[in-house]
Description:
By secondary structure, the chain is α/β, with parallel strands linked by helices. The chain has helices at about 5-15, 20-25, 30-45, 60-85, 100-115, 130-135, 205-215, 230-240, 250-255, 285-295, and strands at about 50, 55, 90-95, 120-125, 145-150, 160-175, 195-200, 225, 245, 260-265, 275-280.
Amino acid sequence: MEINRLKTFLVIAKNGSFKAAAELLFLSPRAVSKQMDQLENELGVKLFIRRHNNTDLTPTGTKFVIAAEDIVNTYNDELIRIQSEQQTKEKRLKIGFSSSNQEIATQKMLIPLLKSDPTIKLEFRQESGQRLQQLVHTGILDLAVSPYYYMQNDMTDPSLSRIELAKGDLVVGISSLNKLAQADSVALGDLKDLEVLYYSPYASLYLKKIFFEKFNQTFSEHQINRVSSLELRDMLIASNQGIGFYPSPFLTLEQQKNPLIRFLPIADDVNTTYASTLFYKKNNHNLVLHQLLTYLL
């Protein structure tokens, strides 16, 4: 199966038309259409419902998105691994982070390392937290920084070690237009009818599961909804169209960014613990990683 056809298929699935995919991939619409004809012929199924101005996926096409993503990700990971093996033995650290908050924690973590040796080469990659753990597990990344939520049903990779970089609690972000924002804290029962908004750039249900289980199922799953950008999440919350959960270690920045949002501790006796966390494998022999760990442990 030709990898470029799968990549083209995923761009069409994400953007909803052959024309948009052609523009993004710097191909002609005819070339895109030909690739998809070849892919459909190879699979023996129809992946698209073609219309004049847009393209919808068939039910089979929708299911195939997951398989195509897995194949493309596996190919990309293996390519990176091969390229890494071919590189000279220079001082290099491959780092992943999952969000802007984790990027801040990563920068702070790197300060002593880079002060001691500015010649270290750093490579960065942004992915979802679960995806980052897979990349650390397979050796594509040396380490990853992403949230850890201290769940009873731990969803993290048990083979990875972790170090807390910034620990605190999740607090509620609520519009100052909402009367509940006038209190010093808020009970989950007072929030149970409000929509919970979370940000993820990926079509992932991970945070939906976290917030559903972490707060004793106060919120139904259909109340907990993903938005595609931090800015959109914050604007919806600021305008009293939902609430969000924010990590306390980064509240100073959140307060500066969001003057219409109040951040309140949760009054209930529930598990609100959160940490920005470094994940790594103990058997990783990268000397730069071990140098970094000496500053953190």
